[in-house]
């Protein structure tokens, strides 16, 4: 009975992953083989389509753009939010909880509400279609969730280290930099992981705020490339694999942390 | 700990400044824009009060129909993803050895981007060379083949199915985490007392999974109401207006036609609908949690 159930679960999981397999297998078929043998395993591995798409799509440039934007945004989000979380976690007054409420309000605002007025704002200050503009937007949009994470983590840390630091003549800034920030390392990892996942796959914000052909991020690049050639399977599938690969590798190595991070907290209450 | 207010403000300043300028100010500005006839031009907008909202409640093609489509889509996704996620989680719960591998495998589609999944599934649904029709034909179900995204009755469920496929693994992981926190004595004693699998599910597992049910339906409902990328890539709202959800209409109003005022009013309406529905859903499911 258990054996039958186990076999059934394996079968369902395989069927579930069929579209992913279809994408991978079709991506290494020549156009002739796609026509003759659309569903079966490829007889020969054909990587010409990959090379062709890699060059025509300007793939490397788009990946570097995305990595750059993700890296700078992550550093910005972590620094700005950890700085803000420190007094919010350590000072218990009416205004500090009011500021905390003010930040958590941002968790509820859908990006569509912000985008239309933000587009005009960015255009009028000359930040439309610049890396800096998109990075500032990513930092600001992620402040609510990062402040929320950092505040609850700092609250769980003992205060004694910071107090000892202050007695020894540190200023609050040096206490933050040399004592608090290093202790935040695990939660910085979680926050950075979430940011990487969301920025890599994000489409709407770079579509609206960074559309220049050379500075495009990967998903906007895939979209505009496939918008022209999307009906041709020999371009569609290699482009789809190339667009997904970096994040799939990332997921493969960090699967435990990613699943735990997305699942955790949701069922504690 | 003591910290002078000036020092605290120094720590808070960068976050407050960025957040206020880039999130809060545009949100308030959007509320104001929704009361104007702004088209984004330099000549400025005229304040027209609630005219946009009055127009909206009579606007069948630009608001009421897309709203209905969005609600149907959200309902399909919420029900489908919750039922499939629950089923998969219970199945994985019975098989400790397969659990971790199956969870990772089922989670994978949700790691892909909506854009890429949208393109790949558009091809799978393609009536001529797409994988789905070829698969149906090869197993003798040729009569089932159709233009999945080309027929008005099938396009919306077809897009919803892709959404469910991507994120049912997320729902399953959340249900599973909850399931594994149920004390095993409870399940064992039920089996010893002679409860059938169905009775065990109905009277023990399902009630104890209430917290996961609340969070899962909340997440899928909000996600379903905010749908944009999949229909944007797969159908562009077509055929006809069969998959034209609210966010597509908003995007078109604002960035296609430059109607910032009316577009903003639509976003505010969507925000209010999301807030109302999640509030109702949460109140109902939370009270259910307390009763069980």
Q: What are the SSEs and their pairings?
A:
The complex is a heterodimer of chains A (269) and B (292).
Chain A: H1 2-27, H2 31-36, H3 48-56, H4 59-90, H5 94-105, H6 111-124, H7 131-155, H8 160-167, H9 172-183, H10 185-201, H11 204-209, H12 218-229, H13 233-263
Helix pairs in contact in A: 1-13, 3-13, 4-7, 4-10, 5-7, 7-10, 8-9, 10-13, 12-13
Chain B: H1 5-33, H2 51-58, H3 60-94, H4 96-107, H5 114-124, H6 131-138, H7 152-180, H8 184-192, H9 197-208, H10 210-225, H11 229-234, H12 246-256, H13 260-291
Task: Summarize it.
The complex is a heterodimer of chains A (269) and B (292). Chain A is mostly helical and 269 residues long. Chain A is built from 13 helices and no strands.
Descriptive account of the structure:
The complex is a heterodimer of chains A (269) and B (292). Chain A has helices at 2-27, 31-36, 48-56, 59-90, 94-105, 111-124, 131-155, 160-167, 172-183, 185-201, 204-209, 218-229, 233-263. Chain A is an all-alpha fold and 269 residues long. Chain A has a domain at 60-216: MetI-like (MetI-like fold, Orthogonal Bundle), CATH 1.10.3720. In chain A, α1 crosses α13 (233-263) and α8 packs antiparallel against α9. Chain A is globular. The two termini of chain A are 35 Å apart. The mean pLDDT of chain A is 89. By secondary structure, chain B is mostly helical. Chain B has a single domain (63-256, 263-291), classed as MetI-like (MetI-like fold). Chain B is globular, with a radius of gyration of 24 Å. At the A-B interface, α1, α4, α5, α6 and α7 of A face α1, α3, α4, α5 and α6 of B.
Number of helices of chain B: 13
**How many β-strands of chain A, per DSSP?**
0
Order of helices and strands of chain A: HHHHHHHHHHHHH
Number of helices of chain A: 13
- The parts of chain B where pLDDT drops under 50 for at least 5 residues are none
Hey, which two chains have the biggest interface?
A-B, 92 and 86 residues
Q: What is the correct CATH architecture of chain B?
A: Orthogonal Bundle
Share of helical residues of chain B? over 70%
Secondary-structure-based class of chain B equals mainly alpha
Structural classification of chain A: mainly alpha
Could you estimate the helical fraction of the residues of chain A in percent? over 70%
